[in-house]
């Protein structure tokens, strides 16, 4: 209860601080006049005093009304009320207030004061509303004038630069104040928005826009309309920290990767799409990878696997876990591969999961009436982030070619089963973007330019989009982002620092999903033991001795004479397996036996049998395998296509059409690959084909 409110015995609460209305004001005036007249008569007060007081009140209220800029009729009504009240009081003091004539006239005056107050109140409200409407109309006129000026300016500019006459239908300024959007109708004659989009750089220069600001055209509501986004404030030059809101996300509703030039977040939808992130050294690509991992960590239906053959640097900050208040924190990623062998385990596991999901979840997909696996926290999507993965696909190195075949197989077979990839590359070149599978599946593409022009062919990365120039995004962390939903446009990646990564890992620890039981069974011990100390010792091993992985890659014994084992690619480690590893091999064999026994009535023909590999005999003498020609860069793609063709194989002519090379060059490369055992030649006259050894 407020200090001005009194409630007596549950009665009506009275607010003594409230102002008077027409009724209470009239009652107050009449009762006050009657009280003054009665008391003044008993005290023999001179009548002229009441008239003097009323005159002073009328003058004071008139001055107050003028100061408040009230209407003249309101000021007059208030002054008249004072004069009528004081005049009646003066007359009552002279003749006596307790007569029917005095009381009747006082009641009449009260009614008049109330009616006058009500009328003037309504009039003042109407004046106030009219003033607000006038102000709004004035603002609207000013805005409309500004829009008309913008429209006229850009109609002239587009006619001057693009030789097109458009009709502007609307101009919308962005809430952030960073620019505006023009909605225009294209001229008749089959003109498309691409005509304006191709002149983006010239339009920006003609408009004298600041560096980093552009005028870009995109599709309108139909093919005869165009939307022109004009940026007037350079958002790209500012360092924008990653948002401090670590709320839950979903792969189904989009994961933000940065902001557009209008400061709006740009969501990326990766349920069916793979992604390709290109950025030269110093452009902010590593920071972009951490931004991507942050979005996946916040998602409730995503498991993140990371392959980084550069000592696992991309994933290391996300596996540092702390114990707060006795509660262990789960890593921000689900699996990290830093060596060739671990990456092979991861990719083989992903392939097994994809094939097993196709059979095991048929009933679920039938009930949901969809051919896509329903993704949820119970059946999460697996996102494999491969740092510099595009270089792996284009590499001629033998180990990289093996990984490349596995990566392409994951991309090819696992879309419906919710396993997708995010590849990064150092440049947008033909070697990186030459693979048809990457161009077809990686519809989400990012080019972080940082002003770098070498190796940044934006026309190759964003085919069909003209007017993109590297110098439009010369700042670190800035570039172009294109998705099927939003098209290609400038964007700025958020800046994320190690302390934020630690905060995100802690904030999202209890949000990470678990691999569903069906997928975990298909994944087997390779997945279950991914964090075993024998496989993660390299993370905490900071001394200078070579790791097991580096020994496997080749580290010959120290001795005299000529030794080229450092160049060997397939030399196994000479050390005998530890007892713990031998025991693990036994457990793996038992696991495979149980799985085979369980699924004997429901075989998986697409999954090759897991047979133990016999130990290779270490070669003696001079080994020059590392110096042999591994074939042209397009050969791994051809081998992948031949493997996909199955037992029927592919003719050299079909391979030549696939890779875009002449048949003579293709035949020579395929013949050399068959000589190395990578392919099998099936001679059948004009129907001769090359077959992968798996199907020979």
Summarize the structure.
This protein has 696 residues and is an alpha/beta fold. Helices cover 44% and strands 13% of the residues.
User: Low-confidence parts, pLDDT < 50 over ≥5 residues?
Assistant: 1-6, 10-17, 543-628
Task: Give the overall shape.
Answer: elongated
Name the structural class. Answer: alpha/beta
Q: Oligomeric state of the chains?
A: single chain
N→C terminal distance: 91 Å
Query: How many strands?
Result: 20
Which superfamily, in CATH terms, is the homologous superfamily of the largest domain? P-loop containing nucleotide triphosphate hydrolases
Number of domains: 4
Question: Treating each run of at least 4 consecutive H or I residues as one helix, how many helices?
Answer: 23
Q: How is the CATH topology of the largest domain named?
A: Rossmann fold
Q: What's the mean pLDDT score?
A: 77
Strand order of the largest sheet: 8-7-18-17-16-9-15-14-10-13
Helix content range of the residues, please?
A: 40-55%
Text of the CATH class of the largest domain: Alpha Beta
CATH architecture of the largest domain: 3-Layer(aba) Sandwich
